[in-house]
Amino acid sequence: MKFPADFQNKIKGFRRWQDAQCSLLGRVMLFKGIEELKMQNCDNREIKYTMYNKPYFDDNLVEFNISHSGEIVVCALSEEHQIGIDIELITNIDLQDFQSQMTEREWNALSTSNDKTDAFFKYWTQKEAVIKAYGHGLSLPLKSFEIQDNSAQINDQTFYLKEVTINKNYKCYISSKINMDEIIIKNYNPNN
To answer: Could you tell me which residues are beta bridge partners of residue 73?
Structure first.
């Protein structure tokens, strides 16, 4: 598999080799997923970026999103709907640093939770997945919308969420405008 010069330069620009490796693996997973799903006309397509830095194919035959954290990379594909996915390695953090990113209701729920760290990473990955599906990146403040009952509203658009269980040390959510009951989640393990 050959990658375009701009992607090769992006890989070379990472300070940590782990981030370069995860970015490279995400791209490989994308094209492997396209191949497995037999999506037409996507092989060797150039990936472009919106003004919000969301990657896309020119012909829009497939929507995709890639995320990585720690040692895990995830890739979501859809032939019909915008999609977003986020994964985070659960670590010890100072929750106060993130209060400004949560709505009052989210912060109250997080503050009264028995497992505050788990509650934080649940909200964080949900918000990130929704922002990625919406496609405007962090130009949309995280506090400007609220996660409630595995969904969020942004400008009269509803984004649904579903947890993807991968590893007990990670939190991962996927988001799209369709009901998540219709989403098929397929885990790919290169060791199988």
So the answer is: 68
What CATH superfamily is the domain 5-181? 4'-phosphopantetheinyl transferase domain (3.90.470.20)
- What is the number of alpha carbons within 13 Å of residue 178 lying toward its C-beta? 10
Which of helix, strand or coil describes residue 4? coil
Q: Are strands 83-89 and 170-176 parallel, antiparallel or unpaired?
A: antiparallel
What residue segments make up the domains of the chain, in order of their start? Answer: 5-181
Query: pLDDT tens-digit profile of 24-53?
Result: 888 888 888 888 776 655 555 678 888 888
Interior/surface letters 58-82, b for 16+ CB within 10 angstroms, e for the rest: eeeebbbbbbbbeebbbbbbbeeeb
Query: Which residues does residue 65 pair with via DSSP β-bridges, in sequence order?
Result: 76
Q: What is the pLDDT of residues 57-106, one digit of tens each?
A: 877 678 899 999 998 999 998 888 889 999 999 999 999 999 999 999 99
Nearest to 59 by CA among 28, 34, 36, 84: 34
114 phi and psi angles, rounded to 5 deg = -70, -30
Counting every residue written for the chain, the total comes to 192
pLDDT band at 192 (very low <50, low <70, confident <90, very high): very low
